[in-house]
Specification:
By secondary structure, the protein is of the alpha/beta class. It has twelve helices and ten strands.
Length: about 300
Amino acid sequence: MYRLMVADVDSPSYFVATAAAKLGFFAREGIDVEFEPVYGAKYGPERLRDGTLHFLGGPAYVATRAFPAWKGAKLLCALSQYSYWFMAVRADLNVKRGDLNAFKGLRIACSPTFPEMGLRYMLAEAGIDPARDNVRIVASPTAHGQEHLKGRDGVVAIEQDVADGYWGNGMRVAIGESLGVAKLHLDLRRGDGPPGARWYNFAALTTTEKLVREQPQVAGGAIRAITKTQRALSANPGLATEVANDLFPREEASLIADLIERDAPFYDATISAEAIDGINKFAKANGLIADPIPYDELVASQFRHLWRRQ
C-alpha cells in the first residue's frame, strides 16, 4: 500500500493527484494507493522523509522543509504549470485588477510559512515594502471544523473584518466571488504580478530518491497515472465533481468542475528548464537553498518520456 497526500485538499492545482487516486488511475497502473484527505502541508514533507508517505502533491519546493535543498527528494512530474497563487480583494474595493500599488495600506490574510513566503517575495519584487507602505499580512482564520479544507479561509477573513484581501488558491477566490464577498485581483499564472511571477512556483508530484531508485516501475506508473488523469479531466471536467462530492462541502463541490475546466490548459506534466530556473531563484532568494540545484538532481528526468499525456 502506497500513501498519497496533497498539501491543500481543495486546491484545484493539486486536484489532479487527488483525482488520480480517487478515479482509479493509480490502480490501473498496478499501484495500490490510499489517498489521505488531510491538510498535507502540515506534516506531509516529514512523513515523506520518514517513509509513512510515498507521494506528496504540492508546491514544487514543499519537500525542502524535511529534505534540505531537496536532498533525498525528487520531483516526478508537474501537476500543472506555473505559479497558481491568486490575490482576491474585497468586492467593494475600488481598485483596478493587477494594480500592484493597490496593495498599499491593505490587510492581507494568508496562510503561514510557504504561502506567506510567496506573498512577501511577490511584494518585494513589486517594490512594495510592508513597513513603509503599511501592508499588513495577517493570519488567515480557518472555518470551524474544516482543518483540512482551507477554501473558506479568505472569505472568513473578510467577513470578520480581519483583512481587506487574501492570498491563496483558486478555490478561495471562487468561493469569495460566488458569495459576492471578493473579486480577483492577481492571477500569477496568467500574467499578473511582477515580471516573471508565473515562474515562482508550480504544482508537482514529489517522492523520494529511495523510491525512484528502488521502485522505478512505481515511480513511472505514478507519472502515467497523473498524465492520464490530466487528459481525462481536460476532456471531461465533470469528473472532478464525482471526486469532490466525497471530499468537499457542497459549496466547493459545486465549483470544482468550472475551476478544472479553467485550469485544464495548464495540465501538462512536463517540468521545463525554465520552471526549475524559476523555482531555484525563488528558493535561493528565500533561504531554502544556498546555490541552485542542477536540473537532474532535482527532477527524476529519466522519466521525462512519460510526461507526454498517455
